[in-house]
Amino acid sequence: MTVEELRKAVGAGAIDTVMLAVPDLQGRLKGKRYGARHFLDRVLDGGAEMCAYLLATDVEMTPADGFALTSWASGYEDMVVVPDRSTLRVLPWMPRTALVLGDAVGRDEEPIEVAPRQVLRHQLTRLAAHGLHAQAGLETEFVLYRGTYNPAAGIGPGGLMPVAEENLDYALDHTPDTDRLFRRLQGSLSKASMPVEAIKTEGAPGQVEVTFPHGPALPACDAHLVFKHAVRTLTGRSGMTATFMASPQTRLASGLHLHISLTRSGNAMLAGPDGRLSATGEQAVAGLLAGLPGLAPLYAPNTNSYKRYVPGSFAPTSMAWGWDNRTCAIRVAGHGPGLHLEVRVPGADANPYLALSAAIAAIIHGIERQLTPPAPRTANAYEATDAPLLPLTLDQARSAFRHSPVAQEAFGKGVVEHYAHLAQLELDHHRGTVTDVEQARWFTRA
Fold first, then answer.
1. Any domain includes 407
2. pTM exceeds 0.90, yes or no
3. Domain boundaries, position 184
């Protein structure tokens, strides 16, 4: 909605609350709720102050030293969140409420470079220097469970159970409560100017996939965060819990697939006149294969992310590519002007701004160096022995990221160290935590 439409809605009493949100490092909406009139009078033009630790903290919002942006040493100063008017929209799943995303600005009134929206903007600017623009369609999976999550009870017998017990991949007959949720989700997103392309159940019990149409890259990521907000709100009201973990249970993998196309002056650039990849398309594929292994913390941000990369899971294990081949990390899909690249390495837990930034940075790497990809895989890429492997652990990924020439050139030392430190916080947390899996395996056997 426009600002003028918001003013009219506030005057008519249709909107009484505006939420100003900034995407955090984990890809969640964080911010404040304002009375709508106060927002219009005091916040819309000047922005609002919020603690800068929103962009320098782990998933549990624990204040931590080691970030250059802010810390105990600097007193956890404020940043300014400036509303991006183009993101203003009504949230139909929240009564009389509108949402606007904001950009983080420092004391010098310059954008904060580590902010996820700014990280993506920087890569889009680099791509535009080549006369290219990215379109993206995001396809995400999540798993639905009945009830409210209780860490003490966990997942499985005695705790949360999936809403379905069997494989409902492509099923069109769902339980009444699941069907109602899908209808509410689809209807709410449509009213929020975010119409879905499709909703389908997947192969794992309770797994759901939602796809959105292609569009400009930054708005696609903005919409993804709003979509996750809708999912969490509507599932909670339906007596369910949704998780976007990459691997919430053993042998269960949920992805965030990035469908990327490139245009120049409105013309599709990935397909050649013969229907195969153009020179730009080949360079993009080669860049993704070469660059993505060193950028993993941007699309696989925690220790659980790497448990998704298992043969036979439909998640890739090596950097292979192929035509309509779902065992590959990069799948070429579509036809003619609709030809595009499906990047299958990010998990459902990925921050979409960072995952897409990693993909675009790798594409730029391939274009600038005019790389050539190897032959496409026509068989099972899980059996490939000559393709580079994805990192096996977050520890391995963090080390590769810090030393990646692609990362340093694309993002700069400050951004790389910021997200490398975020990965280190995750590693430190897990190194000091004894899990129930360790207890079950070793308690009476050690």
1. yes
2. yes
3. 124-439
Q: What is the pLDDT of residues 276-287, one digit of tens each?
A: 999 999 999 999
Beta-bridge mates of residue 201: 208
* Measured distance CA(123)–CA(132) in Å, rounded: 11
How many structural domains is the chain composed of? 2
Contact by Cβ (8 Å): 353, 122:
no
CATH number of the domain to which 160 belongs? 3.30.590.10
| 219 found inside a domain | yes
Give 139's strand partners.
211, 257
Position of tokens 């220790």? 303
Instruction: Give the three-state DSSP class for 200.
Output: strand
Q: Which stretches in the chain have pLDDT values below 70?
A: none
For residues 401 and 204, give the distance between their C-alpha atoms in angstroms, rounded to a whole number. 32
Tokens linked to 375: 């032959």
Short-list 39, 159, 174, CA closest to 98: 39
Length of the chain: 446
Q: Are 283 and 319 in contact (CB under 8 A)?
A: no
Co-location of 88 and 152 in the same domain: no
Q: How far apart, in whole angstroms, are the C-alpha atoms of residue 164 and residue 446?
A: 37
Is residue 369 a contact partner of residue 362, using CB atoms and an 8 Å limit? no
Point out the domain boundary residue: 112, 134, 167: 112
